[in-house]
Amino acid sequence: MSITAKDVEHVANLARLTLTDDEKEQFTGQLNAILKYAEKLNGLDTSGVEPTSHVLPMSNVMREDAPKASLPIEKVLRNAPEAEDDQFKVPAVLE
């Protein structure tokens, strides 16, 4: 598979980019070089490689979700700019 100048023009149009003829030629060459390099992967024997979603093994490092006592309301509201009826008071966002 190779990229043509027409392909580059199409992608540039989708991205709403204006490219000069020199830029189209440059990008065509660069994209073809990338595809040529990526085709080397087709030559690798991956029959013994298990499919993965991550390169490194993933594990949950979060603590167990266990209920515990919460802070007293007086301590929670101590640093609030304003409080009313044991709740944070904030400016209205709707009129």
UniProtKB/TrEMBL annotation:
It catalyses: L-glutamyl-tRNA(Gln) + L-glutamine + ATP + H2O = L-glutaminyl-tRNA(Gln) + L-glutamate + ADP + phosphate + H(+); L-aspartyl-tRNA(Asn) + L-glutamine + ATP + H2O = L-asparaginyl-tRNA(Asn) + L-glutamate + ADP + phosphate + 2 H(+). GO terms for biological process: glutaminyl-tRNAGln biosynthesis via transamidation; regulation of translational fidelity; translation. One of its GO terms (molecular function) is ATP binding. Its EC number is 6.3.5.-. Keywords: ATP-binding, Ligase, Nucleotide-binding, Protein biosynthesis. PANTHER family: GLUTAMYL-TRNA(GLN) AMIDOTRANSFERASE SUBUNIT C, MITOCHONDRIAL. Heterotrimer of A, B and C subunits. Belongs to the GatC family. Allows the formation of correctly charged Asn-tRNA(Asn) or Gln-tRNA(Gln) through the transamidation of misacylated Asp-tRNA(Asn) or Glu-tRNA(Gln) in organisms which lack either or both of asparaginyl-tRNA or glutaminyl-tRNA synthetases. The reaction takes place in the presence of glutamine and ATP through an activated phospho-Asp-tRNA(Asn) or phospho-Glu-tRNA(Gln). This is Aspartyl/glutamyl-tRNA(Asn/Gln) amidotransferase subunit C. The gene is gatC.
